[in-house]
Amino acid sequence: MKKIILSIILLIISAVANGQSNRLNNLMFENLSILKENEKISIAMDMKLNNLELGSNDMLILTPMFASNKTNEKKKLASIVIIGKQRNKVLERKIALNNDPGIPDNVRSIVRHHNGLQQTFTYVDEVSVMEWMNDASLLIEARVKGCAGCEENRKEFQLLDMIIREHYRPTYKLIYVVPEVEPVKVRAEKHSASFNYMVAKHDLVRNFKNNAAEFDRVDRIINEVKNNKNLEITEFTVSGYASPEGNYNANRILSDRRAHSFADYLSDVHHISRNRFVVNGYGEDWEGLKEAVKKSSLPDKNEIIRIITNVDNPDARDAELQKLAGGKTYRTLVESYYPPLRRTDFTIAYHVRAFSVEEAREVIRSNPGLLSLNEMYLVAQSYPVNSVEFKEVFDIATRIFPNEPIALINASAADIEAGNYQVAIDRMSKMENDPRVLNNMGVAYARMGNNDKAKVYFEKAAHLNEKDAIYNLSELQKVMEQ
Questions:
Q1: Labelling 84: which of 45, 118, 335, 458 has CA 20 to 30 A away?
Q2: Which of these, 420, 393, 378, lies nearest to 174 by C-alpha position?
Q3: Which fold has domain 190-350?
Q4: CA atoms of 64 and 142, how far apart (whole Å)
Q5: What does the pLDDT look like over 93-110, one tens digit per residue?
Q6: What are residue 421's phi and psi, to 5 degrees?
Q7: pLDDT tens, position by position, 123-172
Q8: CATH number for the domain whose boundaries are 372-480
Q9: Please, are residues 113 and 40 in contact by the beta-carbon 8 Å criterion?
Q10: pTM for this one?
Q11: In 270-417, where do the E strands start and end?
């Protein structure tokens, strides 16, 4: 839909009627509106006759027309006839006698002009769109007739040089940030193993209870890392934990021995140098118990949490817990909540080699955590901007690097490209002090049609010397000036 509003004063000079020289001046056209919609072009305008000087015997015929700017094609619209006092009487008499009134067939209205009075006539018409009208002007043909047999004076005046003006289409610049190359990609995987031990023992026995299945799981994890030629193991961190029953100091020592026992197993079976291990026993895992109880539906969970929080002596906590519900609560804790606390956590740290773009396109599907932000960015750039893959890569980057501003900025830009404006705004809402974010927020709001809000963000970013925002602000200004 295209619409133009303007005011034009048309001076029609030197119209000859009845052998005398008359002047028709100050015919004003206001509020000119041209609308293209549904293969139709409609025109509306106000013709102000306030200061028009028209002889009593004169008839002014005004015919708007569309004229091609490239060819001779024209399309006349309905005419308007403006007549003086005496001419009006003649016309009425001819019509009453069924005589030819001498006016064009396409006349839409006849207006009796009153010199010196305030007169406004609203003109409206509509025609079908033709291809040449995409580059056409609006003309007014003015013909003045006096008495019968008098010479007719005809002139054409241009009201508009282009009837269909395309709205300015801004090209807003979105900011994508190129992440720095990661010189050494350091990664780590954290896992947990829950083995069964004989009472007060730290020896790992494969065929004790369900230990065999847990050993198999651990072996599978280690082998996946060891056999991956893209990785180089640099360190193992082993942390042992115990459940709270029994003596606090004894449990700390026991958890340390069990952690070392697990490290020995990894070193012996998987041939990992023992000097790569960092091993610690942390004893009773009261924090783990508290978190488990918080999520539980135990009837006295609040009292359990109070004891853990307020009783400083760990062994005294045991005694207090044993008093709850006549010992029933403690038995539930020992049977259901303590076993998961007896565990050994282990973290495998390793370096990852650099990947080419082609390799990275495969890795991002199978194990994206092995890629750097820079590698992910290059993968995204290998796809068309409007493709599903382009956006997916940036979404993966935010999942792998959730706290990295660059990942969020780029994912938000990709959202804007895809038309997901509100999603992008929500992503960026916590980083509004970053000029790159401010610029992209402005682009999102501009594309949503909220120019006022877009202007606010562009101005903030421009104030922080963001060059793309300065450019975008100028583009927005062109849109707002239409």
A1: 45
A2: 420
A3: 60s Ribosomal Protein L30; Chain: A; (3.30.1330)
A4: 9
A5: 888 888 877 787 888 888
A6: -65, -45
A7: 999 999 999 998 999 999 988 887 655 666 888 888 888 888 777 889 99
A8: 1.25.40.10
A9: no
A10: 0.65
A11: 277-284, 344-352
